[in-house]
Design a protein that fits this description.
The protein is α/β, with parallel strands linked by helices. The protein is built from 10 helices and 12 strands. The protein has a 6-stranded parallel β-sheet.
């Protein structure tokens, strides 16, 4: 008997397509506007994972033609110094998007800094004003990871209307905005989390299952409805018995691939889409600022 295996939702390929579209858009508009779009990624300290993410974002900016106004600050930088930098970027006409790379050193208040960013320059879509616009179904900058997932589902023509969607995880970065976006697309949404009783009985009902908790292999094949669409947001670094580390998701890929209809790989699924939506948000702000929408 032939073993069924899930079709991959290829975020890497779609992210490249989006970057190409954005690159064409920048080439067309830059002569009219007189400048390229600008993104400022602020990083504090020397977290190696953060440094790698920031380099990836800067490379993606370069590829698309977005000017990078990123700044790297020493660990001991104060809240007041960063607030001053954000205020200057808010007023800088060349900058369309501002992003504070998390996590920050412990002495800094990440939420306080986020509140300082001008909502229309909030490239991460996490300012309370933008989250409020999402709740109200108004247009605004959307949180990058959930927006990337919605774009990926759309690309593969996966129907959401009336479907049972389960989001495992309730973070402000992914879980909560994800649930709102799925609701907006007329799915019936359940949000589960670490304190949910009998998680398998909840996930087993899902036509669309989004795993975003940061626990390697939490979702196994027995927890997945046959024919479901499974999106793995987890990015967990685990060490093999030979001492080498690798990235794995929140979903046990091998077993789930035998049950699901569609599945995102890790890496190469949601991660590239998050960066593509960051660039998309920056480009959208650039358009809005210049009344081209």
């Amino acid at each position: 008997m032939e073993t069924k295996t899930a079709k991959l939702l290829d975020g890497k390929a779609l992210a490249e397509k989006i970057q190409q579209e954005l690159s064409d858009g920048v080439k067309e508009l830059q002569p009219q506007i007189g400048r390229p779009p600008g993104l400022a990624v602020l990083m504090v300290g020397d977290n190696p994972a953060s440094a790698a993410y920031v380099r990836g974002k800067e490379r993606a900016c370069q590829k698309v033609g977005i000017a990078s106004f990123g700044k790297h600050f020493p660990t001991q930088t104060t809240q007041a110094e960063l607030e001053e930098v954000i205020a200057a970027l808010n007023n800088d006409q060349r900058v369309d998007g501002i992003l504070v790379q998390l996590p920050l050193p412990n002495h800094l208040d990440a939420v306080g800094l986020l509140h300082q960013i001008e909502p229309d320059k909030d490239a991460d879509g996490l300012h309370p004003v933008n989250l409020g616009r999402l709740v109200r179904g108004e247009s605004g900058l959307r949180s990058c990871t959930p927006a990337g997932i919605m774009r990926l589902l759309q690309e593969y023509a996966i129907p959401l209307q009336g479907k049972q969607a389960v989001v495992v995880g309730r973070s402000i970065l992914v879980g909560k905005p994800m649930a709102l976006m799925l609701l907006e697309a007329d799915a019936t949404v359940t949000v589960a989390h670490s304190r949910s009783h009998d998680l398998p009985s909840i996930t087993k009902n899902a036509d669309i299952l989004i795993a975003a908790v940061g626990r390697p292999g939490l979702i196994t094949a027995e927890m997945v409805k046959p024919g479901a669409v499974v999106v793995d947001v987890g990015m967990n670094r685990v060490t093999n018995s030979d001492g080498n580390s690798r990235l794995v998701g929140d979903v046990d890929f091998e077993s789930t691939a035998k049950v699901a209809e569609y599945l995102t790989p890790v890496p190469g699924g949601v991660g590239p889409m998050t960066v593509a939506m960051l660039l998309q948000n920056t480009f959208s702000s650039y358009l809005r600022t210049n009344q081209k929408l």
